[in-house]
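User: Good morning. I'm curious how zinc ion would be positioned relative to this chain. Could you predict the structure with it bound?
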Amino acid sequence: MRIKSMKEQKTKDLKIYNTLSGTKEYFTPIHDDHVGMYVCGPTLYSEPHMGNMRTFINFDLVYRYLLHLGYKVKYVRNITDAGHITNSAGEQEDSIGEAARLEQLQPLEIVYKYNVRFQNLQKTYNLLPPTIEPTATGHIQEQIEIIEKIMENGFAYEVNGSVYFDVQTYQKSFNYGSLSGRKVEELENETRDLNAQGEKRFFADFALWKKANDNDMQIWRSPWGDGNPGWHIECTAMSTKYLGETFDIHGGGLDLKFPHHEDEIAQSCGSSGKTPAKFWMHANMLNVNGKKMSKSLGNFFLPQEIVEGSTALFDKAYTPNVLRLFMMQAHYRSTLDLTQDALNASEKGLTRLTEAMETLKNMAVSEKSSIDVISLVNSFYDAMNDDFNAPILVAKLFDAVKKINLIRDGKDSISKEDQKLLFTEMSGFILDVLGLTFESDHKDNRLNPVMELVLELRQQAREKKDWTTSDLIRDGLKKSGISVKDGKDKTSWQ
Ligand code: AMP
Ligand code: ZN
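Assistant: Good morning! Here's the predicted structure, ligand included:
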């Protein structure tokens, strides 16, 4: 009862930083307790790297907290499997076609191959599956229909089988730049290569439909001839189809704010007259040595490599739990540097948290509490209600750990009711909101007999004073993320 009313109260206090207004605003859904959320998903021409995963983990946190507050969330995250992306030089690029040529596969074989890996990664890193993961190629008709509406409204024009969004005409009725704060005049100065304009009437116009060229491996029929969609239109088509013309939250990585999200807003206003989402959320980048992790810079690390311990960056493996806790120790709007020191700290933190939860569960209770459990629990909600501030939540959970350890040492006390409340709330925030799992749950039971055998062999080596072999075994295990502790009577592993 206490928990239910606390949650109801806290639900009203959620504030989200809205890129559109540049401020934190109170969140109330458009339709009662239903939330519609759209997040730009991956372009599956290669395996998503840890940077991509950071963005998806951050929106998994948002999704989890909204569910925790009791909202019914429809979470749509697309898969880009078609379309031309505009690169920094203003040229149209078909990354999936490029990968298909390189790997000698069909474009959709490429997407399928990397989607299988992406789905496995989501399981490994404990991401909740979205409600639906629609693909661009599955919604070509919907994209064509939106382009037709934009043309009917006078905000797009056709040239030689391609269709472009007409930014100058749009500017007369709407504000191009409302999200990113970019001014069209300033954009002109930024465009180095004016020849990139090509058949467009104005340099800032962008493609809604591109006429097919000889290199295109995926081509669709359209009222303007054979071709393929521009990159931005798929998100407008799929968000409208699954969430309606206006919905609650639109998210993506910060690098998508301009031009991708600016153009999505223009396409929605240009077709329905409405800004699609009330709240626009942008997650910041994962860096390596201060630089954004990216495919093009070549400084990327794969999520699977990190859990296997095979990256050049680290000398050992880390569990997905450690990676998640590490990610949660930075606010989603801050950059975060991937370093071994930070992962080691998260690893220690995770052990402390897991041990404290075990202690709390089996704790001797008193008649009265000497600690204020209600204000501790309030502080968890307050942290997350302040624009999903996970690092503050983690700090508050560690405050609770300190209290738990004091109670264990007999320096503080807790009543049965408070112990139950604290355990339920801490478990909720650790497991349901942060998406961690307790390490012991994670241990693969099939490893037990194998580890018994390995430790037995090590024990025999030690008895023969064969330190080379025993160290070889210990160091080899360490590389796989398994640490061995020699106790008085027994050797244990973790
Ligand atoms: P892409 O597959 O390139 O479309 O990227 C998928 C998502 O990952 C987008 O929301 C990007 O903004 C995001 N992303 C790309 N690189 C990083 C990075 N280094 N850190 C965090 N997010 C990233
Ligand atoms: Zn998008």
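DSSP finds 18 helices and 17 strands in the chain. Residues 40, 42-43, 51-52, 54-55, 252-253, 255-256, 285-286, 292-294 surround adenosine monophosphate (ligand 1) (CB under 6 Å).
Let me know if you'd like a different ligand tried.
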